[in-house]
Amino acid sequence: MSTFRSDLSHTEFPISERISARTIRGSVLELIKKDHPDFDDKHYLSINELNDYREKYLANMMQDQLGELSDLDKTVLESLNEKKLISDQLEDKTEKDTYGQRIADKVATFGGSWTFIISFMTFLLMWIAFNAFILLNKGFDPYPFILLNLILSCLAALQAPVIMMSQNRQEEKDRERAKKDYMINLKSEVEIRLLHDKIDHLIIHQQQELLEMQKIQLDTMKDLLQKHTKGEKE
């Protein structure tokens, strides 16, 4: 297999990975020249080296637009450099719910359901009917049902903070979901820009190949025309 030597790293690569500096976007080429001032249009590099500089250019562009990169932005860039899915890294950081958090969620879910409302109303009516009509206000909780009021107060005092705990956790989940959406959208935007750059490079490369083919065809036609002219003269 034929190879070439990269003018950046001076490493041997397959000839199929050779990229001419003339086909590189100007902004990326300027970034390469900062590290390698002698690199010009006559030099070559590999596609992997070009992709590294593309990612470095995008990182610098993001830092210029967003200021100092946050942990979310750094995670996105790491996923690009490591060629990994951002969803895999997000799943690794997902924390499991504790036993108390699961109990709080279940209490909040049950407390906000029609099952709880109907069951509790049935309990209240049975309590009032039992003490007022069956025991004729002479039982353990006569009218005005002081014990029932105490139970309701205790239930409300305990249920309210548990529901607030669940709501706070839901807000945390919403924030985490928003962060994940931001990271996924940011990576999508960066990858789309990389894709546009690669397509532009491919189009330029193909145009150069077509121009070379046309030059060869023109040279061939000139040779044939010269031979034909010489034949007629003879």
List keywords for this structure.
7 helices; mainly alpha; two-stranded antiparallel ribbon; 234 residues; 73% helix; rod-shaped; 2 domains
Summarize it.
By secondary structure, this protein is mainly alpha-helical. The protein has helices at residues 26-35, 47-66, 71-81, 86-92, 99-111, 114-134, 146-233; strands spanning 3-5, 12-14, 18-20, 44-46.
Name the structural class: mainly alpha
Mean pLDDT: 76
Beta-strand proportion: 5-15%
Element order, helices and strands?
A: EEEHEHHHHHH
Kindly describe this structure:
The protein has helices at about 25-35, 45-65, 70-80, 85-90, 100-110, 115-135, 145-234, and strands at about 5, 10-15, 20, 45. Strand 1 and strand 2 (about 10-15) form a beta hairpin. It is built from 7 helices and 4 strands. It folds into 2 domains: about 1-70, no CATH class; about 70-200. The chain is about 75% helix and about 5% strand. It has a two-stranded antiparallel ribbon with strand order 1-2. Strands 3-4 form a two-stranded antiparallel sheet. The chain has about 230 residues and is mostly helical. Helix 1 crosses helix 2 (about 45-65) and helix 5 packs across helix 7 (about 145-234).
Topology overview:
Layout: E1 3-5, E2 12-14, E3 18-20, H1 26-35, E4 44-46, H2 47-66, H3 71-81, H4 86-92, H5 99-111, H6 114-134, H7 146-233
Antiparallel strand pairs: 1-2, 3-4
Helix pairs in contact: 1-2, 2-3, 3-7, 5-7
